[in-house]
Specification:
Length: 313
């Protein structure tokens, strides 16, 4: 046996490996080998720890990440630059979409040096080159962690009538909750200051029932998010928009939350551009005349700082 001149740390590591490779002598009844969804959680945690996913993402409430401790992220302006929390990832996203995203976080075959969902983040999700087995285990891990059924059967989203589409658009573009103010739209200038993903990804990425719960009370799902709560209120056993609504809503007895979610899941690039253009026109027309801009600059800046944000979802 040659002398490989190992250091003390190398000797300890090698000894740990060899001893750890031995089958345990403990009785089977003492070993934790669950056969249900807990097995998926157990398998997933090994991969999460292996790739140090918790350095960037929160998996459990109260967990601190490495990024959260960095000086840059102590600045309130950098709060929305933190990677998303994964507390309810299994309930939030379609598992097939998640598998594709984990395989290629850029969601692009040409430009892989980008964030496929949150292009505004300065930190980029790495491509770990997960094996197919690791991808399967991670997807099942998130599903099990959120107590989601497997296999996942996507919910069918009903097609809106022309009237319902107009009603939903009024909610989507309401000045009381201007959705496109914080969400990315694909416009490079706007997306520089975006703090939430593009709605066009929702149809293939998100689960409708989760989105409805999210818009009702985002703070309950992700405490500290800048996505405002209180946009909807309970009235006559239905969720109704807390802001002003047009006359077309009179006599409408279904949940406004469901109407908005159905609209988001049917949103097209053309419709989003139309709404964005209309909102931009509204903002432009509401700007004070040149002679009054200086006088209102201070109050305008203050209102912008306190306006409700979008939050990441």
């Amino acid at each position: 046996m040659p002398n490989p001149h190992l250091t003390k740390d190398q000797i300890r590591s090698l000894t740990t490996l060899l001893l750890g490779s031995e089958e345990t002598s403990l009785p089977a009844s003492y070993q934790y080998k669950p056969g249900d969804a807990r097995h998926d959680i157990q398998e997933g945690w090994w991969i999460v720890k292996k790739y140090n996913c918790m350095a960037c993402h929160q998996f459990i409430p109260g967990q601190s990440t490495t990024l959260m401790g960095m000086t840059r992220y102590q600045d309130p302006d950098w709060k929305e630059q933190l990677p998303p929390k994964l507390l309810t990832e299994g309930a939030r996203v379609d598992p097939e979409w998640l598998r594709r995203f984990l395989s290629n976080p850029s969601l692009s075959e040409n430009d892989t040096n980008r964030n496929g969902v949150r292009s505004y983040l300065k930190v980029r999700m790495p491509t770990f080159s997960f094996s197919e087995n690791e991808l399967r285990k991670l997807v099942r891990f998130f599903q099990a962690l959120s107590q989601q059924p497997m296999p996942y059967i996507p919910e069918r989203v009903p097609t809106l009538t022309a009237k319902e589409n107009d009603m939903a658009r009024s909610l989507f573009s309401s000045t009381a909750a201007p959705c496109l103010k914080c969400h990315a739209t694909g416009d490079p200038q706007h997306d520089k200051i975006a703090t939430a993903p593009n709605f066009l990804l929702a149809k293939e990425r998100l689960k409708p029932d989760w989105v409805e719960r999210w818009i009702v009370d985002p703070q309950a799902i992700s405490p500290g998010t800048s996505m405002p709560s209180g946009l909807f209120k309970r009235e006559n056993n239905h969720w109704v928009f807390a802001g002003p609504t047009p006359p077309s809503f009179q006599g409408y007895e279904a949940d406004h939350t469901k109407l908005l979610v159905d609209y988001i899941f049917q949103l097209t690039p053309e419709e989003q551009r139309r709404v964005a253009a209309a909102m931009g026109h509204t903002r432009a027309s509401s700007n004070p005349p040149a002679g009054k801009r200086k006088a209102t600059a201070t109050s305008s800046s203050a209102s912008q700082r306190t306006a409700p944000g979008g939050g990441s979802r």
